[in-house]
Amino acid sequence: xxxxxxxxxxxxxxxxxxxxxxxxxxxxxxxxxxxxxxxxxxxxxxxxxxxxxxxxxxxxxxxxxxxxxxxxxxxxxxxxxxxxxxxxxxxxxxxxxxxxxxxxxxxxxxxxxxxxxxxxxxxxxxxxxxxxxxxxxxxxxxxxxxxxxxxxxxxxxxxxxxxxxxxxxxxxxxxxxxxxxxxxxxxxxxxxxxxxxxxxxxxxxxxxxxxxxxxxxxxxxxxxxxxxxxxxxxxxxxxxxxxxxxxxxxxxxxxxxxxxxxxxxxxxxxxxxxxxxxxxxxxx
Length: 284
Prior knowledge:
16 helices; elongated; 70% helix; two-stranded antiparallel sheet; 2 strands
């Protein structure tokens, strides 16, 4: 049935993935290998198809073969970072490369300045909008067993890496301080520190057009609604609301922290809402 369906739709990526998944469970290794090779021939620019073949090699213990496949990532996905990210994320999850190496390969493949050859890429940074959940960053942190080492890595991401202006990175760092280290005061301080440079923040969940959209928004005087600012302010207020009251002294301290956050992030969010309401009224 699969062969007939693939004969009719040979470039159907989802169908190939279902077929290879079934063969991995029920057929010989050679049959599954042949199917993966055929899938890659018919869908040469599909990162997910590439990722499936790579994960299968890793599952069979063929890390050398998986790493050999990775050498083709740059040539295969040179101007398609979304597909490269899918392949490299699969490689990192499967253990073929470390998360740090996967991140480095993304940077090497597409250049820190977003230019490769004669092709000018339109995104701010491949890691930003391709990985809004910060999968590779979180994975690189989880690989460290020492909490202090994890904290240092989040500090590096938030303060000195190319991702230092990504709102989600600052949010993840603050929540790590609260959840993993149990240091709510440090988490609140991290939010406050990020807010100090709110005008420079971008959002990892924005599309590839976010850079132009944010610039246009700023030019139009609507920087209050910049995606990065909204992500940080919402996360900070949610964090403050979630903190338990505890003992009386702790409750008083939390109350002060909430009021401080509200005076910054809360005011920002209310101003953004007022700006949206004013535009809606004007358009009506």
